[in-house]
Amino acid sequence: MAEGVTVRARLRPYRVVLAARASSQTVYRANFVLDLISSLLAAVVELAEVWVLFHAVTRLGGLEFHQILLVFGLADLAFSLADLAFGHCDNLPTYLRAGTLDVFYLRPQPLLLQLVTSDISLRRLARAAVGLAALGAGLAVNDVAWDVGGVALLVVALVSGCATFAAMFVLAGGLQFFLVDGAEMTSAFVYGGRYAATQPASVWSRPLQVVFGFFFPMAFTGFLPTLRLLDLPAPAWLPTWLGWCGPLAALWAWALALLCWHWGVRHYRGGGG
Amino acid sequence: MSAIVETAGLTREFTVRDGPRRRRLTAVDDLTVRIEPGEAVGYIGANGAGKSTTIKMLTGILVPTSGTVTTCGLRPVKDRRRLARQIGVVFGQRSQLWWDLPVRESFRILAAIHALPAAVERARTDELVERLEMADFLATPVRQLSLGQRMRAEVAAALLHAPRLVILDEPTIGLDVLSKQRLREFLIAMRRTDGTTLLLTTHDMGDVERLCDRVLVVDHGRLAYDGDLAGLGRTTGAERVLVVHLAAPSPDLIGIPAARHLSSEAHGLSQRLAFDAETTTAARVFAAVAERVEVLDFTVEEPDIEDVVRRIYAARR
Predict the structure, then answer these.
(1) Contact B191, B184 (CB under 8 A)
(2) Which residue of A has its CA nearest to B101?
(3) Which tens digit of pLDDT belongs to each residue from B10-32?
(4) I need a labelling partner for B213 at 20 to 30 A (CA). Which of A133, A261, B8, B304 fits?
(5) Using the beta-carbon criterion (under 8 Å), do B77 and A270 form an inter-chain contact?
(6) What is the secondary structure of A91-154 as a DSSP string?
(7) If you average pLDDT over every residue of chain A, what do you get?
């Protein structure tokens, strides 16, 4: 019981900041609604891109449109949720340039936790809604085996996919300490990774397969779980049990991210590195 | 009692990219200083002299290249989070408030960050609001505050958790005379009631004169002076100036013992005489002047500290 109280007390600073951030975004209701709508439109356009693509071809990387819908839904929902919670790590270059990061150092909480909980972008909920809708549609139109294994795979894929994307934001943050105008470069793998994740990995070129299949483990967020879930034949080089390996991919992504983050912080404080 | 700040041989180098070449730049060079609890120390020097770098090392933001630093008995980098509970810092140029939230809300968040119990939070907030006269703008979003109001809110934010050491980096920069005065009065009162240790960097010599009983002058990362304000003037031989306003136009007052005629205005109705506070007193110079001419009024100008710092720099080169 006493432990519960301390955990609550420890979490209170983050909770108070997030609550204040969330309420400040909804103060100007019209503004907030516009934000939501623009965010929604952007997400719908991305989904439409996939749909348009399938007007030209009927199969892509061995998958049909209704199957891609599941890949897209899984990856996009995972990304949107990670974006909601971790997306403002993209603000780090601004903090660095203005020197406001120093303010975090003067507060008795870990730096990364402060950064992550420094804001929350509620408008990104609209994005998540599109991802959820795509996932729902994907699950409905496909012949999914609704047994314990199927449900478990779905949950594992979503949770670990979300963690993997979150790690990408942290990884990008860590690199910002070195790159003066590095947002473009890190966006390439954060947002490029998201885009890659919503496509079947089997159409990627070999270098892309290495980069977004394993180094930034994007294939584990949508494509591989979908193959397993729908019991589809995998490309020869990919065993289907990899669909279950999302948690391993997330662990790898987080190891990479934390390494990069600590490396960046060390660089910032000038401790060598 | 142990020191609040203690450094030994504190040094910080940076690698600067100068075109294709890289060179080492020493921002803080072998700084050894000890600040006791309750002291008020002015840390002054030109831009780029190493003031901010020193503060960042004292607070755990930067890792020293060599040497040691202890703040509030803690090692700043290793014990950063524990240290954060004991120090309050205001960076004049960097806000720690939430720009789109009301001031009151920022205080509430900071109280949560420092885990203040509700009763302490209320008492402390009320006290600061009253002493810094913030009641009028508590409900105003930070971005709508005037600079003077914002700075008071920043100071309050840094003091909310009643830190033992308060570090103010250029706290009065850009403030109008009245705001400056208010802030200084508050800081003086705070020291008197709470015994807080104060470390202040500033370009405003009024801050140092009003607030500090000890001055550290840093030049090119090296400590150029450590002592009281009066001693600073003595060390550099900066002179005090006696300004006399006379009843009738008079020739230049030359030959007053231990004093030097600087200038005359209005046909000698107003004259300025410089003297060294070490060798004579204002009263003696005044007496010598009054023997020669009829004096209506007079003032004594203290050495200009910026001039004093400039002299220290010049003497070291």
Answers:
(1) no
(2) A24
(3) 999 988 777 788 888 899 999 99
(4) B8
(5) no
(6) GHHHHHHHTTHHHHHTSSS-HHHHHHTT---TTHHHHHHHHHHHHHHHHHHS----SHHHHHHH
(7) 87
The nearest CA of chain A is from the CA of B282 a distance in Å of 47
Contact B77, A269 (CB under 8 A): yes
Q: pTM for this one?
A: 0.83
Architecture of domain B237-316: 2-Layer Sandwich (3.30)
Q: Which tens digits make up the pLDDT trace of B58-116?
A: 999 999 999 999 999 999 999 999 999 999 999 877 888 998 899 999 999 999 999 99
Interface subset of A 22-41, CB within 8 angstroms of B:
24
Q: Which sequence spans correspond to the domains of chain A?
A: 2-269
A105 and B59 within 8 Å at the Cβ level: the answer is yes
Dihedral sign from CA coordinates of B205, B209, B211, B215? positive
Note whether B65 contacts A17, CB cutoff 8 Å.
Answer: no
Residue B88 or A184, more confident: B88
Classify burial at B119, counting beta carbons within 10 Å of its beta carbon; exposed 0-12, middle 13-18, buried 19 or more. Answer: exposed
Indicate the burial class of B138 (C-beta count within 10 angstroms; 0-12, 13-18, 19 or more).
Answer: middle
Q: Which amino acid, residue B136?
A: D
pLDDT of residue B212: 92
ipTM of the complex: 0.81
Tokens of B18: 């100068």
Q: Using CA atoms, how far apart are residues B152 and B134, in angstroms rounded to an integer?
A: 8
Asked whether the beta carbons of residue B91 and residue A99 sit closer than 8 angstroms, the reply is yes
Q: What is the pLDDT of residues B152-167, one digit of tens each?
A: 999 999 999 999 999 9
Do you know the residue count of chain B?
317
